[in-house]
Every structure is written in structure tokens, then in C-alpha cells.
Amino acid sequence: MSIDLQFNTYQQLYFQHQTIRREHQEILLESLQQLKTNVNNSLKDDKYKYENIKETYYHKFNIFKRIFTHTALQYRNSFVIPFKQIYQQRKYLSTKIIQLFNEITFETLSIEMRTHWNGSIAVVYNPITGRTEWKQYRHGGIHGVFNPITHTIEWEDGFQTGVYGVFNPKLNIVEWKKFYKGGVHGVYNPSIDTIEWQTSFHSGIGGVYNPLTKEIEWKTSFKGGIVGYFDYETQTIKWIEKWHHGLALISWNSSMNSYLTTSSCGWYGDN
């Protein structure tokens, strides 16, 4: 397969990745794996040919000829440079394919989490497009919420301030709360039809609705981010925390047949 055809195939798969819903990304992996293997095999051949032609060039022309003769320059431009360019282009393509493969692989997992040092990171799933948006904020909090009324994602951030938003189904608006130099978190409790809020100074705080007890469980992490989710296999709440990092998590909820997202979007100080 020529490098042009490989590039075109990659671009087609990348476009499909951008347009196909997150829950259907797995259908791209087989084609991407085939392309990855094909490009890697071509890359080995490119490297072998480039190194051979380069070695021939150095054997054919000593340093004096390489500097002062037109024949050496012509040979280099006609043979060495073209092989080098093809090798570098294929190497670049291989890197892009690996990045895309890893990104799609993460999206096919039931849980994906990302972190951001000394700041916040948030993820929002858009059920209309089936895609996710990730945003980061340095030295402060950031959070996003999908508004099912306007079909848009609303974002808020704050310097050295915890930020969190929750859609209120009674008021049909996104409620926002901020907490200076600390963490803030809100969770909608469907059993009492109310959003419950908690804050924590210099600490991250996370909350998860437990469908068994019909209550919100809370947990804090001193100067660190913390997120939780209800594990339907073990019927327990699992917690993840990391010192001085913002955390964002998206998980597949089989009972809802959709994704749930949560984030630890606080600010815990400089040290």
C-alpha cells in the first residue's frame, strides 16, 4: 500500500472517529489495527532502504567529495533525501495512527479517567452527538454540564476556586456553585428530587448516588482530587483519588444505557 493510500485511509478513519458515537467506536478498531500493521511493515522497509542508501552514499563519497563535489550533492538530493523523506513521513503517520488507536481504545473501555496536575479537568458527554468534550484549567476549577433543554454544553471556571454544576430537572436549568480555595460537588438525588451539595476547604470532594440506599455518599481528599462511581458488578461505590490533581471520569451505565460523567474540579493550594 502506498503512503498516499495509507494517509487517505487514516484520514477516513479519523473522520469516522470524530463522527461516530462513543458507544460505537469499537467498530473502527479492526480496520485501524490492520492499517497500523500495514504502516509498521512499510516503515521497516523504509528504514532499511534509507539506511542502505545512506550507507552507500558515505561509502561512495568521502567527506571531501561530500563537501566539494557536485556529483555527491546530486546523489544525495536524488537518492538519500527522497528515501529519508518517505521514511520520516511514514514514521509521522505511524505515530498519528498509534495516537488514534489508543484514543479509540480508551473510549471503548467502560471507564475512562484523565488527570490534570495542579488544576482541574472536566468531561461532558453529549447524548445528542454521542461525543465527549474534555477541558482543562490551570490553577483553578472548571466544569461542564450538558443542558438537555438547550441541547448545549455549559461551562464555568474560576481561578483558585472550585467549580461544579448540576442540571436541575425541576427548574430546567444548570445550577452552579463555586468555593474559593477548596472543592465543591453536587449530586442530583432522584429519590428526593433534590440536588445535594457539599464543600471542603483545601480538599477535593466527591459524591455518588447509591441506588441501593437511595442516598448520596461523600468522600474528601486533602489537597487532592477525588471521583467516585457506582460499580454495578460489585454493587459498591468505587473511589479514585490523586494528590494535587484534577480528575475527570466517564463511565458506562448499563442500567441507563448511557454514560455518566463526574469530575473533581477544585483548588487545593500551591503546596
Describe the overall structure.
By secondary structure, the protein is of the alpha+beta class. The chain folds into two domains: 3-108; 112-264, no CATH class. It contains four helices and 15 strands. Strands 1-14-15 form a three-stranded antiparallel β-sheet. The protein has a two-stranded antiparallel sheet with strand order 2-3. A hairpin with a 4-residue loop joins strand 6 (161-168) and strand 7. Helix 1 packs antiparallel against helix 2, helix 1 (3-19) packs parallel to helix 4 and helix 2 (29-60) runs antiparallel to helix 4 (70-108). The radius of gyration is 26 Å and the shape is elongated. The relative contact order is 0.12. The mean pLDDT is 95.
What's a concise summary of this model?
The chain is of the alpha+beta class and 271 residues long.
The oligomeric state is single chain
Backbone shape:
elongated
List low-confidence stretches.
Answer: none
SSE string, helix = H, strand = E? HHHHEEEEEEEEEEEEEEE
Q: How would you classify the helix and strand content by structural class?
A: alpha+beta
